[in-house]
Recover the amino acids of this structure.
């Protein structure tokens, strides 16, 4: 039998608060810590053949897949199955992973049901943690005492992603709905269903929406339906991005651009009008995570591959990391 | 004045002697007239002349008795006088005097010429006086001349005398030198003299004093006198040697006695052998009656003694296993030309001494042959002969020992693998060929390949494919023989040189390479290595054979489209797809498919693997699975590479769903037991996963048939490939 790591799939990535490390979590419950400093500014004399391999590789005790990662100044928050863990960054950056600093349990109704924490989002004031979960709900926790503040329920299937801007929250789900919420009232006030819009729907890929993001005026979302730019107030499709993809899993705004990828051979940087600015080839069959960091600029693209692509200029692939 | 006086006295002397001479001359003239003696006689030695004169005078007349006495004496006296005078006067002075007189004479002549020209009387007078004077001077000249003659003679005599003396002394000196030289030679000869006794090896001094009896060693004398010591030691040596010679003779005699005894015993034994043969012959009917193979075995062991040592080791060890495990599992036999082997053995025993020098010889031969060939080319003989020669050389290099060992390994159902081990005499390696015998013919092409193809022995031990010679020297030997191709080129001809085959015969080339630095010994088969390897090999091979037979059956089923995963028990899930094709594919076809790029680049599938293509169809969907079986299946699970043709073409590097199925089938992820799954189980799983994939796609063509909690889960929208035995069975995500 082959080693399962050959078929590795990375679902999420995060940078350490100091910006020197990149952590990536895969479906086998493994957490890889890459030393970006060593990889981006290699000292030729000290270069070994495994320089592009993880500096540390931690295994979660449960072995459950790591679905989402988000970082605060102190903690790395890991969303797996039925649990959200908070690990001190110091523990993550040591050779052996100790016990988590805290954990939040998401109780399921039946023992057979597994609730994936598909998406984690931290409110801009860094006080609230939002978790989009496999039980169709978005949970809001107070990060200080980790108590559940409220539940956003409105999806008919599991939640793919959670994102927000100011007090506005957006979530997308397998049911094909994109819901807009008010963080203060915890109520859904708007809803779009891209699969019902014949400009963007792709019935052969399904109705699911893999990713949705907010800016001040715009929504970008895509999944089974095409990636499209929606106007926040009118909730109309403004731009339909014509990409040769088989499903969108990543989409967000960055510097007046939309960055998007998924089951495609490239990661795209797109203008609001629909032009493709940059087409970045990727190693992964499907991209599940593309995380950005500024100063210095690093874009890490990971997905269903043991390889993680690193770009510093957004124009070409600089390095390939091996998560194996 | 003094000079004039001297000249006058000299002149007087000269006159006197001239007068004397004159007188004697007159006398002589008188006799000359009478006796007719020739002047030559007169010119003989003066003593002689005078003696003769005396005699003649005596004989001529007695009248002038007084006168006769007188002139002889005078003559003698004159001679003596002149001789003494010549001695007394210095020659130099005479020479100057002579010159002066000559000058005077010349002066006189010139005066006379002058006077003559005057032609007066007075002059005539003067001329006369001058003439007299000149005459007188001539007389003086004559005297001087004579004196000089006398002096010269005296000097010559003296010189001659001295010369003789020098000669004699020189001779004496030569004699003495010769004598001295001779003496020196004698001295060195004496110094270089070596006594015979110095060559004799003597007992050391300490031992001599310790062992020799007092009367021989006589320490009181020998300790002081070295010569005596030497003599004593020699005496002791002689005594001892005599004793030893005596002992030696005794021993030789006893040896001869023993030899005679041995010869007698041997002749008796020889006489015994015909009897034994008779006895053996007599037992034959009994053996046949009881169906015993005693004779055959005896024959075989006789042949075994002719085997080269590596093959002998193999034979000995494997026949031991054959005895232990029973003939149903392992049989061993020797085949080949025994006579040829016997001849070879005789040859090699003769040549064994020459082995070492062989290499250089062969080089020389090469050169010779080349030259001969060149010559031949000149004679325009056909090119064929050269090729033939090369062919012969090739044959010589790859010459096998005429005998080979055959090991047959059988498994329960009657499938047998017959291995033929041959020994290459010159390359010193073992090669293996094999045949498979099946109890019943195999239906199906790919199934038959499993047992018949070369791959059955592949990777029996890791990375041992028998594709190149394990002996490091092979390449060199081939090059030395002028064969440009590598050993691989000839494998189909000679058989495969598997490393396990070498080890079974006790040949360990790695060990020799390491040993080389220490001592360059000839390659000796190691018995212990052979023992352990043979045991392990037979077990491994049986296991391989068993698994191959099982695989063959599996493949046979697959080829007919039948999948029977659990022996007898049916799979709990209804499968909607069906296996429509199963066939073996080649490496080029395998690498052509885009789905295999990843497996090949990771080195997970190689050319040595068995490759198959399975096609599974369900309605409009077609799943093509390229299956790679490792040689040591089922120790290593088969590797699947999938391509789905439905709504376009999908494979693992562009579609995550296919990648997920490959992950579940190929990897050890969430495998309950660590047992490697069999091919048919994997195929069943593949059919199931295909059903799930198609049913979760939401297409109306494939109505959901399986029970599953949720068709997709997680951001990666993974399908439920995990089967839980709950109720009728539920599929969940991993």
């Amino acid at each position: 039998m082959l080693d399962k790591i050959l078929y590795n799939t990375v679902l999420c990535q995060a940078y350490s608060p100091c910006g020197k490390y990149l952590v990536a979590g895969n479906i086998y419950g493994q957490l890889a810590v890459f030393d970006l400093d060593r990889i981006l500014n290699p000292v030729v004399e000290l270069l070994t053949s495994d320089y592009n391999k993880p500096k540390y590789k931690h295994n979660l005790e449960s072995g459950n897949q790591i679905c989402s990662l988000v970082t605060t100044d102190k903690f790395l928050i890991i969303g797996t199955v039925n649990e959200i863990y908070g690990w001190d960054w110091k523990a993550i950056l040591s050779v052996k992973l100790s016990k988590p600093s805290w954990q939040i349990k998401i109780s399921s109704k039946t023992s057979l049901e597994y609730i994936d924490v598909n998406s984690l989002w931290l409110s801009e004031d860094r006080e609230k943690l939002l978790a989009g979960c496999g039980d169709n709900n978005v949970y809001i926790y107070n990060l200080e005492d980790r108590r559940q503040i409220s539940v956003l329920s409105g999806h008919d299937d599991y939640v793919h992603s959670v994102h927000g801007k100011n007090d506005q929250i957006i979530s997308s789900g397998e049911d094909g709905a994109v819901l807009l919420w008010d963080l203060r009232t915890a109520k859904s006030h708007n809803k779009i269903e891209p699969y019902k819009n014949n400009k963007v729907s792709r019935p052969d890929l399904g109705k699911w929406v893999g990713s949705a993001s907010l800016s001040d005026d715009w929504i970008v979302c895509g999944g089974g339906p095409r990636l499209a730019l929606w106007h926040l107030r009118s909730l109309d499709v403004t731009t339909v991005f014509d990409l040769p993809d088989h499903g969108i899993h990543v989409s967000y705004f960055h510097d007046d651009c939309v960055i998007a990828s998924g089951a495609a051979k490239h990661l795209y940087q797109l203008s609001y009008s629909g032009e493709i600015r940059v087409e970045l080839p990727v190693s992964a069959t499907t991209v599940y995570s593309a995380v950005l960091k500024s100063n210095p600029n690093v874009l890490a693209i990971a997905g269903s591959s043991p390889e993680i692509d690193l770009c510093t200029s957004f124009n070409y692939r600089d390095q390939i990391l091996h998560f194996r | 004045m003094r000079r004039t006086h001297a000249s006058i006295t000299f002149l007087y002397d000269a006159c006197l002697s001239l007068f004397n001479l004159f007188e004697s001359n007159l006398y002589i003239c008188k006799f000359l007239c009478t006796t007719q003696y020739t002047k030559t006689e007169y010119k003989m030695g003066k003593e002689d002349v005078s003696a003769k004169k005396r005699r003649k005078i005596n004989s001529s007349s007695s009248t002038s008795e007084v006168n006769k006495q007188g002139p002889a004496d005078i003559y003698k006296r004159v001679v003596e006088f002149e001789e003494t005078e010549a001695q007394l006067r210095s020659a130099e002075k005479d020479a100057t005097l002579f010159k002066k007189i000559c000058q005077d004479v010349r002066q006189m002549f010139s005066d006379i010429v002058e006077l003559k020209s005057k032609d007066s009387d007075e002059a005539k007078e003067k001329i006369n006086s001058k003439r007299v004077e000149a005459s007188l001077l001539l007389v003086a000249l004559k005297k001087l001349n004579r004196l000089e003659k006398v002096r010269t003679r005296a000097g010559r005599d003296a010189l001659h005398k001295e010369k003789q003396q020098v000669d004699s002394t020189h001779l004496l000196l030569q004699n003495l030198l010769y004598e001295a030289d001779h003496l020196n030679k004698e001295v060195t000869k004496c110094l270089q003299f070596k006594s015979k006794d110095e060559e004799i090896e003597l007992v050391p001094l300490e031992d001599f004093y310790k062992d020799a009896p007092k009367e021989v060693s006589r320490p009181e004398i020998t300790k002081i006198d070295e010569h005596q010591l030497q003599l004593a030691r020699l005496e002791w040596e002689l005594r001892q040697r005599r004793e030893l010679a005596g002992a030696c003779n005794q021993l030789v005699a006893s040896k001869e006695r023993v030899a005679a005894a041995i010869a007698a015993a041997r002749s008796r034994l020889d006489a015994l052998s015909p009897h034994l043969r008779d006895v053996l012959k007599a037992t034959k009917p009994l053996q046949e009656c009881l169906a015993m193979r005693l004779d055959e075995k005896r024959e075989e062991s006789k042949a075994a003694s002719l085997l080269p040592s590596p093959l002998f080791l193999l034979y000995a060890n494997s026949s031991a296993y054959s005895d232990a495990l029973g003939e149903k599992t392992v049989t061993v036999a020797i085949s080949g030309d025994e006579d040829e082997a016997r001849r070879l053995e005789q040859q090699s025993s003769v040549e064994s001494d020459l082995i070492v020098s062989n290499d250089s010889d062969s080089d020389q031969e090469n050169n010779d042959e080349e030259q001969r060939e060149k010559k031949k080319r000149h004679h325009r003989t056909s090119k064929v002969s050269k090729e033939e020669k090369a062919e012969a050389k090739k044959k010589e290099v790859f010459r096998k020992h005429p005998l080979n060992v055959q090991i047959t390994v059988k498994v329960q159902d009657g499938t047998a693998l017959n291995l033929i081990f041959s020994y290459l005499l010159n390359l010193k390696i073992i090669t293996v060929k094999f045949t498979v015998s099946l109890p019943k013919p195999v239906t199906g092409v790919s199934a038959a390949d499993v047992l018949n193809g070369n791959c059955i022995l592949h990777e029996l031990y890791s990375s041992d494919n028998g594709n190149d010679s394990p002996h490091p020297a092979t390449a060199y030997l081939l090059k030395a023989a002028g064969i440009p191709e590598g050993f691989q080129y000839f494998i189909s001809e000679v058989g495969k040189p598997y490393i396990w085959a070498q080890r079974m015969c006790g040949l360990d080339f790695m060990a020799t390479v390491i040993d080389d630095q220490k001592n360059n010994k000839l390659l000796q088969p190691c018995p212990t290595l052979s023992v352990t390897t043979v045991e392990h090999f037979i077990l491994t091979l049986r296991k391989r054979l068993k698994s191959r037979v099982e695989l063959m059956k599996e493949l046979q089923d697959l080829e007919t489209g039948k999948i029977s995963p659990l022996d007898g028990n049916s799979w709990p899930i209804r499968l909607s797809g069906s296996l429509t094709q199963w066939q073996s594919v080649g490496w080029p076809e395998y690498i052509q498919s885009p789905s295999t790029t990843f497996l090949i680049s990771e080195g997970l599938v190689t050319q040595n693997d068995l490759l198959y293509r399975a096609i599974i169809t369900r309605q409009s969907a077609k799943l093509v699975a390229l299956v790679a079986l490792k040689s040591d299946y089922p120790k290593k699970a088969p590797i699947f590479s999938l391509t789905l043709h439905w709504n376009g073409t999908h494979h693992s590097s562009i579609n995550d769903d296919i990648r997920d199925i490959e992950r579940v089938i190929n990897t050890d992820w969430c495998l309950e037991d660590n047992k490697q799954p069999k091919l048919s189980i994997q195929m069943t799983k593949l059919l199931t996963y295909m059903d799930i994939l198609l049913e979760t796609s939401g297409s109306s063509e494939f109505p959901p048939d399986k029970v599953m909690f949720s068709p997709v889960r997680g951001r990666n929208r993974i399908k439920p490939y995990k089967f839980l035995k709950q109720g009728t069975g539920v599929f969940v995500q991993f």
The CA atoms of residues 481 and 498 of chain B lie 23 Å apart. Chain B has four domains: 2-167, 195-292, 297-356+391-546, 561-732. The first strand of chain B starts at residue 330 and ends at 336. Chain B has 25 helices and eleven strands.
